[in-house]
Amino acid sequence: MRRQWSAPSVLVLCLGCALVASSWALSDELLLKYDDDVKDGIQSYGGSGHVVKFEAPEDGTWYVDRVDVCASQYGGGFDPATTLCMAYVCDANMQALGQAQAPYRTWPHGQQQAWGSIDMPDVQVKGAFYVVVAPGSLANRGLYVAYDSTGKTADNIHAGAGNAGQAPRPPKEPWDWMIRAHLTTMGAGAGPEETGTTVLKWDDGSAEDKQSFAGSTGMVVRFEPPEGTWVVDAVGIFAGTYGAGEGANRTAFSLAICDEKMQPVGFAMYPYALFTSDMHWVKVDLLPDVPIQGPFHVLYIGNCMQTDGIYLGIDTSKGAGKSLLGQPGQLSDWNFRLPQNSVNWMIRVELKPG
């Protein structure tokens, strides 16, 4: 979704300029950037993200609630509504603190780059942190990200290339990506009572084991919503990739929301590139939201291979008996190395009123 960010309450911090420390208190919003709003060139990376290092104020509590990217689509043979650009907020060690995504349609197709926004889930930051924008670009399609090279030298740039969990590499030439981080002191920190959402889960947040399945074998979790009318807004998956990682932007896993009889009422495929080798939670926003009535199932099919795949986290602290195996239209016999009543697939759903 594109936003206008010309509101007078926004304090723009251009880190190449002097700024008195006391001015932090002038606003509850900050826009961190290194560009002068004039594009000097564009670049896409295959298999790597566009990395920018920022510095959050040490005083107060700040949250990244939005990442702005000046970019454009190129190529063809893809659906710009379902092809996703990922954004990660990472700590000073490049470990992911939070992530979000926006469809390619957020940016125009063609030679003219434009600003588009990726809404983040209020990621708390302090001091040095990184933003990684990972469009999953390929030779035949992707996003060109604009850069600003005016007055840049190897000693005063903040840009790089890489992914969450990896040390960034410097860019090909001295430039800074036209990527901005919007900070606010009004972080949600909100549970379902404040946001109107309800999170359903069976795990305790800690993985004791992990598993991948090849072929059409799917991991299924059964949920029962509270009374009322609800839609599934997002699915949370605790997982990490393994193997060489080749083709991560082309290899996809499947997510289906199924009714009580395992008939799909919503289905989509997502790239392996949503995950890194570091096991962590990834929130997959469903586009569009999926209405549900009564008990329902989430079906995850990893389409894994021996050389490359995704390990899904398993919580064995207290099995709920709600984790199953199956595929669209049917549940399968439990054929797994652990007892069914001891396994919780680490898959969660976020509901909002329908």
Name the beta content range.
over 45%
What general form does the structure show?
elongated
The N- to C-terminal Cα distance equals: 21 Å
What is the element string, with H for helices and E for strands?
Answer: EEEEEEEEEEEEEHEEEEEEEEEEEEE
The CATH architecture name of the largest domain reads: Sandwich
Sheet with the most strands, sense and barrel status: 8 strands, mixed
Mean pLDDT: 84
Class based on secondary structure composition and strand pairing: mainly beta
> What is the number of independent domains?
2
What is the rounded Rg? Answer: 21 Å
Query: Tell me, what is the CATH class of the largest domain?
Result: Mainly Beta
Task: Give the count of helical stretches.
Answer: 1
The helicity comes to under 10%
Number of strands: 26
pLDDT < 50 stretches: 1-27, 188-194
- Classify the fold: give the CATH topology of the largest domain: Jelly Rolls
Describe the structure.
1% of the residues lie in helices and 49% in strands. It is elongated. Strand 23 (323-327) and strand 24 (330-331) form a beta hairpin. Strands 1, 2, 3, 5, 8, 10, 12 and 13 form an 8-stranded mixed beta sheet that branches. It has 2 domains: 11-184, Jelly Rolls; 192-353, Sandwich (Jelly Rolls). Mean pLDDT is 84; it is low at 1-27 and 188-194. By secondary structure, it is mostly beta strands.
